[in-house]
Design a protein that fits this description.
Blueprint: E1 2-3, H1 5-24, H2 29-76, H3 83-93, E2 103-108, E3 122-130, E4 145-153, E5 158-163, E6 172-174, E7 179-183, E8 185-189, E9 197-199, E10 204-207, E11 210-212, E12 216-217, E13 222-224, E14 228-230, E15 252-257, E16 260-263, E17 266-274, E18 279-282, E19 285-290, E20 293-296, E21 301-304, E22 307-312, E23 321-324, E24 329-333, E25 343-347, E26 355-362, E27 365-382, E28 390-400, E29 404-408, E30 422-426
Parallel strand pairs: 5-8, 5-28, 6-9, 6-28, 7-10, 7-29, 8-11, 9-12, 10-13, 11-14, 15-17, 16-18, 17-19, 17-20, 18-21, 19-22, 20-23, 21-24, 22-25, 23-26, 24-27, 25-27, 26-27, 27-28
Antiparallel strand pairs: 1-4, 2-3, 3-4, 4-30, 28-29
Length: 427
């Protein structure tokens, strides 16, 4: 969106003045010839300047468009401190440097005008430049200003949940009476299915936005402040380069906690089970479950700070799974340093697609950090609004089976952001 009215009005008023001069001198051939020659030369000169102004205007608009879209990536990735610098740098690459040669580059986040005024998921860039008067100086009293304006919608904010599967129906699904709340963050599905994201029954999903390569089924179940975006490009897995290291010797075999236990990092061959009424406290570090499963039964308690649970297999088969049952008390937070920084649970990417991870602890389940199971069928119910400020998930598919809360206010947790920028320019 841009304004070029000042230049058009300038040309119109100048040509009007020329016509009046010609009308005032009719009847005198010699003066008429000279005046017409002057008028002709002036008209050609004005036309030349006008062409230069139009070109400058196109460049200003291109600069505003590119700067806004680039700044929008900063909005979506949560890098608010870089929004203005990013937009200014892109505008400068187009030759528009704020404060130089009559140029002004203004970055407003959120926008201060238009339909997206005050919306935190949008950024506005205005590029202005005062033009020189080369041939038209004698015909105009002041130089025109070209203006380019663009508003980009970085309207996923940050993603809280992404389903990586490219074809599945219901790659992200909410059914029954499930109520899912994504606190100021978004759902993303890479599936191209016509029902890539679906909701039914009496379920409800509240989020900043819903974004999918395909389409959404059950639109009435979704409450979004920044829109439902279909036809996006698939979002890249932010942890695609992550791999589980080769396992060492077993630290324990078929571990079951029946009463109370304080556990230390290591390789738990055959899995880890917490019985009903039992409590396991994990010391900070990485816990490798080599085959078997992580099982927390209803009434069982599992806690730990600075912890990552890695579900894997040293044999390339029978990969470890997870099952946290309703009524279990789980309170785990991710490390802030090391190769698993920001990751509270990892499923080995070599596990078969569709490997089951059932995290159904409900309101007594808090997993602070990112749950990363790239080939997993993640079934999730958990997180209380009062305690969950950083829970994100990346899986092959995601099914919400109960009331759930996700959030991206991760503070000191070094989680990786993921999201998309709507390349359309707003008003």
């Amino acid at each position: 969106m841009y304004s070029f009215v000042s230049v058009d009005m300038l040309v119109w008023s100048t040509l009007t003045a020329m016509r009046r001069i010609v009308a005032d001198v009719r009847g005198s051939s010699t003066p008429m010839t000279g005046i017409l020659l002057s008028v002709s030369i002036g008209t050609v000169g004005l036309g030349t300047d006008y062409g230069l102004w139009v070109y400058s205007h196109q460049r200003a608009q291109q600069a505003a468009d590119s700067a806004a879209v680039s700044a929008g990536t900063m909005v979506s990735s949560g890098q608010s401190d870089r929004i203005a610098r990013q937009a200014s740098a892109v505008a400068a690459a187009y030759g528009f440097d704020n404060g130089t040669e009559g140029q002004t580059v203004t970055v407003n986040w959120p926008p201060t005008s238009g339909k997206y005024s005050g919306k935190s998921y949008a950024v506005e860039v205005i590029v202005q430049q005062e033009q020189q008067r080369l041939f038209s100086a004698s015909w105009t009293e002041s130089a025109p200003t070209v203006i380019g304006r663009a508003v980009a919608l970085g309207n996923t904010g940050d993603g809280c949940a992404i389903a990586l599967n490219r074809v599945a129906s219901g790659a992200i699904a909410a059914q029954g009476s499930t109520a899912v709340t994504l606190a100021n963050c978004s759902l993303i599905a890479n599936s191209a299915s016509s029902s890539a994201v679906s909701a039914g029954g009496s379920s409800s999903v509240t989020s900043l936005s819903v974004n999918t390569v395909g389409a959404v089924s059950g639109v009435s179940h979704f409450s979004v402040s920044a829109g439902i975006n279909t036809g996006i490009s698939p979002v890249v897995d932010p942890y695609a380069a992550l791999s589980v290291p080769t396992l060492g010797a077993c630290s324990a075999h078929n571990t079951t906690v029946k009463t109370t236990a304080a556990l230390t990092p290591g390789v738990y061959c055959g899995g880890l089970s917490i019985n009903a009424g039992a409590t396991a406290t994990l010391a900070p570090g990485v816990y490798y479950l080599d085959q078997g499963a992580l099982t927390v039964n209803g009434g069982g308690t599992l806690t730990g700070t600075g912890v990552t649970i890695v579900l894997t297999s040293s044999t390339g088969k029978n990969y470890a799974t997870a099952s946290i049952n309703g009524g279990a008390v789980v309170d785990l937070s991710a490390p802030t340093l090391g190769w698993t920084a920001g990751l509270v649970m990892i499923g080995d990417r070599n596990a078969p697609v569709g490997t089951s991870y059932k995290l159904n602890g409900g309101g007594t389940q808090t997993l602070a950090g990112t749950i990363y199971v790239p080939t997993g069928a993640l079934i999730y119910a958990g997180g209380a609004v009062s305690t969950t400020t950083c829970t994100k998930m990346i899986a092959d598919t995601i099914t919400f089976t109960g009331n759930s809360t996700l959030a991206a206010k991760c503070g000191t947790y070094p989680v990786k952001n993921f999201g998309i920028v709507n390349a359309k320019l707003g008003e």
